[in-house]
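Table S2 (text version). Query chain:
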Amino acid sequence: MRKSESTLISLFTLGFVALALPINISACRAIPLTPAQLSMDADVIVRATAVSYNKAPEENRTTGMPDSTVEFRVDEVLKGENVGNTLVMNGYLNDKDDFNDRAVPYDFVRPGGRAGSCFANSYKKGAMFLLFLKRKEQKLTPYWAALTPTNEQLRSSDDPWLRWVKDFLQSHGEGRKDKPTGSLKELVLAVAGDKGTTIEKTKRLTTWINTSFTWSATDYQQSH
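Corresponding structure-token output:
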């Protein structure tokens, strides 16, 4: 048998075997967001703990969107407004750790999201996660940026990934902005601070008043 004929038969056989075997190859094509893009584009960022199923899975597990939903306890809000004490999102629960094996800041999804739909959709029960969420159809979801670390498992409440995101948000003015509440004394203390001389505190308080309550001549006329 000539070499060309042998090569042709080998290629035909290989193709036949590939078609006959029940192999499911479905890889997504996506460019993950950078850590900065992820932090800026997310509507809500929270540290949350996977608690229990809100709705148990009814079918076989998939790498796509699960039919089951998981309830998370919100432990800390890093970004966003009107976030409740709990969140319910599509996902699966398991008893396995799935930590990201790359260096912080993460630029790629954890191992559980590196195949199929390219989203990590499983969460270890009782473990903490840093969730970058988008509002879609009135709901918050972490499944909005393929191959991007939108729902990484944390090792502790002082995880390096969590610290990096906090520092980034603070440096870019994107962190949660809590408004002072309570008595007038508490408000003044919150604005002026407790460090420095009396003159320095007064200057900080005056600056805050001038920038927060600026009236124009038109505003004054309309109020009288």
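Notes on Table S2: Confidence is low (pLDDT under 50) at residues 6-26, 214-224. The chain has two domains: 35-171, 179-213.
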